[in-house]
Design goal:
Largest sheet of chain A: 4 strands, mixed
Oligomer: heterotetramer
Helix content of chain B: 40-55%
Strand content of chain A: 15-25%
CATH architecture of the largest domain in chain B: Up-down Bundle
CATH architecture of the largest domain in chain A: Up-down Bundle
Strand order of the largest sheet of chain A: 1-4-5-8
Number of domains of chain A: 3
Radius of gyration of chain B: 21 Å
Number of helices of chain A: 11
CATH class of the largest domain in chain B: Mainly Alpha
Order of helices and strands of chain A: HHHHHEEEEEEEEHEEHHHHH
Structural class of chain A: alpha+beta
């Protein structure tokens, strides 16, 4: 075991930190420009094999990037596009997926995985969205919700039920019959609800195959969960930093409120919650290459604990900031909002505990 | 000892419930149940209905519209109002400024203010907190300098709920220096239309606009708007804080939220983990209901200041509202991910947010229950010192 | 609603407080003498109707007595004998039960309910203990555990399974074939494990009847649970008092440790836990006369919350006492032990939450 | 970065596990698993086996039996020892006094003490705490007055674990006055057979006898038993506290307790509420295991004093042992009601308690994990101040 980043990782962490903090300092900056910055720094290709046009980064590298992203409250949908949809494309392989991946890495096309459907909570493996193939192409009907990273230019990867099992279809958002509603997320970003009504796409738009798709998607989602855990750790770390700063500055009854023991102990509890979350994130990342059953349990356990830490740290940070923490202007509230979204993303605490328990651990 | 509700109390509850459901329009109660902010006009409409039934100010002197109901009955009333989704009578009016005017105001002030306060013809907001004087209220700095028949008032108030909807503000102001920090504080009523007052919104993480900063730049306030004696403001504020606590635990509100959890959670109600969280919340609520009644039944003269045990209601009641908000949020599942709200929410009337957004807002906004009105840390200080007698020697 | 004791209740509370504190001051005093004191004060007859030789006390009176008992760490098995077994006798009625009850009230005979069996946790309604009647009498075989209040002179009320349902048999502990092992409870009292091997008792030893027994026992147990809740509230109250005293006396770093805010807040949390427990105890007591289904849910909810408060208050009291709390000599530890036993008695927290949830609340 | 265990580390773990199971008698490991206190002779027997394999003092200087193993490997070793139910090498010997003598003792002291300390031929106990000097160690008062080639020592130590089993005690004593409180403290080794020493048991709520008060009445201690320089005792104590923390989180012990929960809980494992508590404990344990490794891997010179992040291990590790003890208690159900223990438990060897009593004892005794060795409140102070930098200005 060795938790020290090597020289290359230190460089990577330092440069992404600089970039993300720059982006954060200009919140209204052009998202297209920011996406180009990601590409130029090699982040879009980071997690992909060199054979696939990527940079051959390891899961550990992604973890460092996502911690920095979390600390800086990154706005561009890098995790959804590159770390979830992108990795699914790489794992699926085949010409359609490879071409899409190449465009994604080049920054010329965005992809997003349409995982969830109305009324099914976090279940994605038995979609109500149905697809039929008539030889020439696919006809797709159904609804998807909460597609992060999607806009009207995106290629949506849609799981759909067919008689042969779970298909994965690449549907450009502009396809006729696809209606998209862009809605605000609780942390002020955008996500799409999507309806397909007899949307027609060519036969070649299929990626993966019914036999492998559930396993491919599960692996991609687990990777994205580990990345979300790292993002949460980064966000919690910064939020604790903001809180400690505030405790040192804010005065009441003639002294800095950071001198009150009850508040000191709360901050210590936040620190412990974050350190335990960081450890579970490390565990999840270390297990991403393990056999699927072990990987899934490790990732679910990690998300459950990171979620619990996040809810505690987020709520207590607001508490320790007092009224200031409730204002939209002060950054603490935005971190709390982001953490709230990330807790929900890919399954809340109860969902992941259920997975751990069903596995008999 | 009579540990359960009496027959008379049960009848009273049933009657209140029936009256509220019959008289308060469903559109209002529905919006409240859905946690949507209400247009000002709806709040006024609801309070006038309550007032007509004697439900707005039962704790006031009978001469000014009060009723001779026991504290337990008043607590039942408060619980039923919340539970039915009827907006509470505006607390700044009925629970805070009204009793202060009734106790310390001049006859002219009583005649001028009490009836419209009860009926929400006049809307008051509360000007206590200042930047740097939140929990440590005695360090407030907003100054009122007497000049003939006026005060000239300058300074700033903050966290002022509904200042943008209000007609008047009651303020603690500094009229004298020296001595201990809480000496030289006076209690002023100020018409918000007076020149020199500026109200700036504070946007909050729930996406709404409830809170404001209020700036006073050389504002002329007639001396007749001073409540009681100059320099006695701290005493009146203490009296005010000792007022009607019959809904301090927010029992009816939590009941309404947990009912909503059951409506919305669907299959989650069969999830053992979620179910257990809800079970604990239900049990906590039952305990709180009785704790509330125990504190309420222990009636004290208002001059004794707040019963320190109300701190239990404040802490536990707030935590329960927060727990219920968390259950609502988690009930949404991934649907919450598209249930955000515009960064600067539109003004009233409420529109543009669906039911889901209102719940996400409620989750964020519920953090306030452990912050405003004396943060939970302050409440625990009070319990440790005033109830347990700890730390006095140190 | 009115939570103020009336004049008579005030007198009762004051005199039992005096008696129990006296007993507590002489821990090695003669238990026979103490039992006589209970009788002389009218406590043995307190909860029973005057028609049955009792004093017609109300549940509220019992609550006051049990709070005082809890505060004083009462040692004699009053709750097990009078409040559980005694009340079951009264509810069952009939000559055998009435005669036993009269002797119990007179202080000449002890009765105890043998509720639990090995390996069945808190289930008492389907005993493995079996009884057969041959016209002349009963033959009883089976094992009972953790019978509080029992000694070798006690009449054991034993639920037993027969072809006709659940019988309730009054078995003198001295009956041939009854073996009794007296074992220490974790709070330093005694409880019995009992084995019956073909124990013969007369036909008249039956009380109640199979049709009513489950309901009778359930009601008696619920009453005893409410009494245990009151005892726990009294014990917690005293334990908090001991803790607050200690915080005021013990000095560290030059000041009383009660001046540390983190410890003050812990004490405030203990206070809140106790007040909520007291409220639920009131709720349980107020519901003892309600229909069985409502009563059972109210009592289970109360025990669950009182248990949770008790675990928190007990553990934190030890924590705030530091090493002193761990010593056998100092009283805080004995209250912690008592509370631990009472949490377990009649079902732990999980058991009662299950009851509440099964009822669909 | 290598976030998982290396092949070499896995091999090491397997080898340690095999060795422990092969060499340490099952009767010893079974008693440990059942949470029963061990006879002194068994503890000595186990430590000698560990020492023979290089497992007792791997962190010591190689000259005195240490091994050149990485901190991660030493942590694996500690975890496996605990997990296998092998009694830990006596911490007072191997983790506390040994390293201090190795670093600051005279050559004569090293030769005299280190080998028997490693092999538990000599049993040391720790004389730091005094009545009135627990967490606030610097206010200790036990005095040592130099008279020629002896000190005359008078005073009292308290909470002395195993003093009744020990041969020697290492003490902080006051040899000088004036200056700041922690000046004038020296570090003495005292033979417990010296006249004037009285050991009185402190019975604890778990029914056992682990703890003692040790009274010193004009006890003559040869000057050669002074460690290092007079008046430098505080520095040595700090060094001591910065020593081997590879098992601070008690990861292996918690693993063993949770394994036992699974053995004993039976049908409760299907109870959703109980199950969830166990699931959380398992997840917390996994997190703690990695946090432990992260702290351990961050090797610091012992002179830097304890890494403040070890406070996390202390708090979280102790809480987890307490949680596991609660799960064990609750697994007993009503069987716990007859699982008490005599008020004054019999001396060793352990007898008269069945497996259930040992679990009830473990529940009571587990409260100590958040009290001794620096109470959790002190650990949180350390985290707030030393890691987060809070409260320094105040």
């Amino acid at each position: 075991m060795n938790f020290e980043p090597d020289e290359e990782q230190r460089l990577l962490a330092a440069s992404v930190a600089r970039l993300f903090e720059d982006h954060g300092a200009q919140p209204s900056a052009d998202p297209v420009r920011q996406w180009r910055d990601y590409r130029d720094m090699g982040l879009l290709g980071l997690p992909f094999a060199e054979a696939n046009g990527g940079h051959g980064g390891r899961f550990e590298d992604v973890m460092l990037v996502m911690e920095a992203y979390g600390r800086a409250l990154g706005q561009v949908p890098y995790p959804a596009v590159a770390l979830l949809a992108g990795r699914l494309l790489e794992a699926a392989g085949g010409p359609t997926a490879q071409a899409l991946l190449a465009e994604m890495i080049a920054g010329t096309k965005r992809v997003a995985l349409a995982l969830y459907e109305p009324g099914r909570r976090y279940r994605w493996d038995d979609p109500a969205t149905a697809a039929e193939c008539d030889g020439e192409g696919w006809t797709l009907t159904g609804a998807k919700i909460a597609v992060l990273g999607a806009d009207r230019e995106t290629v949506l990867l849609c799981p759909a039920t067919t008689a042969e099992g779970l298909r994965l279809l690449a549907v450009p958002a502009g396809t006729a019959g696809v209606a998209m509603e862009m809605l605000p997320t609780p942390d002020g970003r955008q996500a799409a609800n999507v309806r397909c009504d007899d949307a027609r796409i060519p036969a070649a738009a299929e990626i993966g195959d019914p036999a492998r798709n559930p396993a491919l998607i599960a692996a991609a989602v687990d990777g994205a969960i580990a990345a979300a855990c790292a993002e949460m750790v980064g966000a919690m770390e910064r939020l604790l930093g903001l809180t400690v700063d505030y405790l040192g500055v804010r005065r009441q009854f003639g002294v800095a409120i950071g001198s009150f023991q009850a508040l000191q102990h709360r901050a210590a509890d936040m620190l412990m919650a974050i350190e335990q979350a960081r450890s579970m994130t490390i565990h999840a990342v270390a297990m991403l290459d393990a056999p699927a059953a072990e990987r899934t349990v490790a990732v679910a356990a990690a998300k459950a604990l990171v979620n619990r830490s996040s809810r505690f740290v987020g709520q207590q940070a607001i508490q320790l900031h007092g009224g200031m923490g409730l204002t939209a202007e002060y950054p603490a509230g935005r971190y709390f909002q982001r953490l709230t979204v990330l807790e929900n993303l890919f399954g809340d605490t109860g969902h992941h505990l259920d997975i751990v328990e069903r596995a008999g651990v | 000892m009579e540990l359960g509700f009496t027959e008379d109390e049960r009848r009273f509850r049933a009657e209140v419930r029936r009256t509220l459901i019959e008289q308060v329009p469903e559109r209002i109660r529905q919006a409240v149940r859905e946690e949507k902010p209400l247009p000002r006009a709806w709040m006024v409409e609801a309070q006038r209905i309550l007032n007509r039934n004697g439900y707005a100010v039962p704790h006031w002197p009978i001469a000014w519209g009060g009723r001779d109901w026991s504290a337990v009955k008043r607590a039942i009333l408060a619980e039923e109002i919340d539970r039915a989704g009827v907006p509470k009578p505006l607390p700044f009016n009925v629970a805070l400024i009204g009793p202060v005017i009734a106790a310390f105001g001049s006859e002219a002030q009583k005649r001028r203010f009490l009836p419209p306060i009860a009926n929400l013809d006049l809307w008051f907001c509360q000007g206590f907190s200042e930047p740097g004087a939140g929990s440590d209220l005695a360090s407030l700095r907003m100054a009122a300098v007497r000049e003939g028949d006026h005060y000239r008032v300058s300074g700033q108030k903050i966290w002022t709920t509904y200042a943008h909807k209000a007609d008047w503000i009651f303020c603690l102001v500094r009229t004298g220096q020296g001595g201990r920090k809480h000496e030289g504080i006076s209690f002023l009523l100020i018409d918000l239309r007076t020149p020199g007052i500026e109200i700036r919104p504070i946007r909050t993480i729930d996406g709404y606009h409830h809170l404001n900063e209020v700036f006073f730049d050389d504002v002329r306030v007639p001396v007749e708007n001073l409540v009681g004696e100059e320099g006695k403001g701290w005493d009146y504020a203490r009296y005010l804080l000792g007022q009607e606590r019959t809904s301090m635990g927010n029992v009816g509100f939590s009941r309404r939220r947990l009912d909503r959890v059951r409506e919305l959670a669907g299959p989650l109600l069969d999830d053992p983990g979620y179910r257990r969280r809800l079970t604990w919340a239900e049990i906590e609520l039952k305990a709180l209901e009785i704790t509330q009644m125990r504190v309420v039944a222990n009636e004290r003269p208002p001059s004794a200041g707040p019963d320190p045990k109300t701190s239990i209601l404040k802490v536990k009641g707030g935590e329960l509202l927060q727990t219920a908000a968390g259950l609502l949020l988690d009930a949404l599942g991934p649907e919450a991910l598209t249930a955000g709200f515009p960064q600067a929410a539109a003004e009233e009337p409420f529109q543009g947010h669906d039911a889901r957004s209102a719940l996400v807002s409620a989750y964020f906004s519920s953090r306030k229950y452990s912050i405003f009105g004396g943060a939970n840390e302050i409440q625990r200080n009070i319990l440790a010192k005033a109830v347990l007698g700890l730390g006095k020697a140190a």
